[in-house]
Amino acid sequence: MHTEMVQVLWGCFLLWNLNIAPSQTIYPGIKARITQRALDYGIQAGMETIEQMIMEKSIPDLKGSESLEFLKVDYVGYNFSTIKIKAFSFPNTSLAFVPGVGIKVLTNHGTANISTHWEVKSPLFQDAGGADLFLSGAFFTGILILSQNDFGHPTLKLQDCHAQVSHAHVSFSGELSVLYNPFAEPMEKPILKNLNEMLCPMITNEVEALSANLSMLEVLTKINNHTLLDYSLINSPEITENYMDLNLKGTFYPLENLTDPPFSPVPFTLPERSDSMLYVGISDYFFKSASFAHFTAGAFNVTLSTKEISNHLVQNSQGFGNMLSRIAEIYILSQPFMVQIMATEPPVINLQPGNFTLDIPASIMVLTQPKNSTVETIVSMDFVASTSVGLVILGQRLVCSLSLNRFRLSLPESNRSSIEVLRFENILSSILHFGVLPLVNAKLQRGFPLPNPYKISFVNSDIEVLEGFLLISSDLKYEPNLKQEPRIHSWEALNLINGHWSGKPAP
Exposed, middle or buried, 23 (CB in 10 Å: 0-12/13-18/19+)? Predict the structure, then answer.
């Protein structure tokens, strides 16, 4: 009996694992695709950054000793210090995707002009001065491996590094430089040897430093006073011969609660295109989680006073300024009143080719408060407002705006005989269209921050609504003077969130 029970339990366990296995697959809410065009532009745009980095980089001293047979000196100690790169050129540089691995970096025929301070010591003499070092035939190749850490931050590692400088020419200055320069050639060989031994460790250290910065970039961004957005990587980048895909979580959370929404993202595939440098696919899950998070946080609840509604009606439409007085006439009221609108469910997102709609199920209450009395409800009704969503990229943000398509009002059966439904439908539709939506659109102008590298702006952008997701196609432009908001992913405002939510919103 015991054996049979164990077998039954084991069978149930296997069935349970089979049932939950599909749900363990995590799909992204956002896909960002980087094409070969972006890599090619990165070489061009990145040279300025590389130049600044190299100019500011401190190169370790070159020390050693050699015997100078031509001077019949058995031991000469030398030290090249304060090494600074004055100019360099990498005329042949390329970046290429290595499918399933990373990005291959290749440069050759590089040159560099270096200034340095030198000291020479031997049993017979010692001297010091300045020197110019000209390097040529510089070669480097390596593969950058992109991955993610346990917290969804991007990481970078250098693999298969090979670096070499073929030629070095030294020109000394100093009191005895006239003596040294004719015999500089024997010194060039040990300089090259030491330099070539240092190159890959130096480059690896730079990549590790860059990876450390990447691991400190924000992946949890405060959007507003109600929500946060999780941009963390859910897996390592997917790399093909022509592009690299970054799969981002793309989930909104209420400010005080990082619990995932009660629905999951579904897979979606970006179209096979290469005309733009960057493609960003934003799934309906992204917008659904935004809808759910804002609903949970109470962001869709609005209370408007008579004055606020009147101001918007008068400013936005002539002829609707007397709507409030018409409502008052129905109830023969002279006291001020308020309109309270509350979403009853999260707004419903629908992305179809060329069409992005948002249906908002809500209730509306018209309230009044006579003098020296409590608040009274004039009327309470449920409605569904169907809106179209307009989209535009402004700066580094995706900005949405709503326009009212239709308005359906529903009343309890007991109220139908006492209320002019059609009249209220027209009046409340006008209040939504000219009073509420302008307020909502003003808040939506803040937009959603798009994932983008530091000091890179979007140009030649296009937005398409496809089945189940939004596709942004864009080229990139490096702008050294571009100012970015601190909360957006940037190098100027590194803010490490150590894996677990600290209970405080990102600044």
Answer: exposed
Nearest residue to 351 (alpha-carbon basis) of 289, 284, 399, 406: 284
User: Amino acid identity, residue 479?
Assistant: E
Q: Which residue has the tokens 């070539």?
A: 196
Q: Are 282 and 32 in contact (CB under 8 A)?
A: no
Encoded amino acid at 346, one letter: P
Distance CA 342, CA 70 (A): 93
The string of pLDDT tens digits covering residues 143-193 is 999 999 888 889 999 999 999 999 988 887 766 666 666 667 777 887 888
What is residue 335's predicted lDDT score, i.e. its pLDDT? 60
**Distances from the Cα of 358 to the Cαs of 52, 206, 284, 355, 404, in angstroms?**
48, 47, 11, 10, 10
Judged by DSSP in three states, 502 sits in: coil
Helix (H) or strand (E) holding 122: none
Nearest to 293 by CA among 369, 241, 226: 226
Tell me phi and psi for residue 263, to 5 degrees.
-150, 160
Strands 397-410 and 376-394: antiparallel
For residues 253 and 220, give the distance between their C-alpha atoms in angstroms, rounded to a whole number: 10
For 330, the 3-state DSSP assignment is helix
Q: What is the pLDDT of residue 407?
A: 81
**3 state SS of 395:** coil
How many other C-beta atoms are found inside a 10 Å radius of the C-beta of residue 353? 9
Q: Compute and round to an integer the Cα radius of gyration of the chain.
A: 33
Task: Tally the residues of the chain.
Answer: 507
* One-letter identity of residue 358: L
Kindly provide the residue ranges of all beta strands, DSSP E only, lying in 36-153, ordered along the sequence. 62-68, 73-89, 92-98, 102-121, 126-148
Structure tokens at 236: 């390592």
d(CA 221, CA 290): 13
Kindly give the interhelix angle for 323-331 and 306-316, rounded to the nearest 10 degrees.
140
**What secondary structure, in 3-state letters, does 421-462 show?**
HHHHHHHHHHHHHHHHHHHHHHHHCCCEECCCCCCEEEEEEE
Q: What order do you get walking across the sheet with 278-283 strand by strand?
A: 238-239, 243-248, 30-35, 278-283, 469-478, 456-466
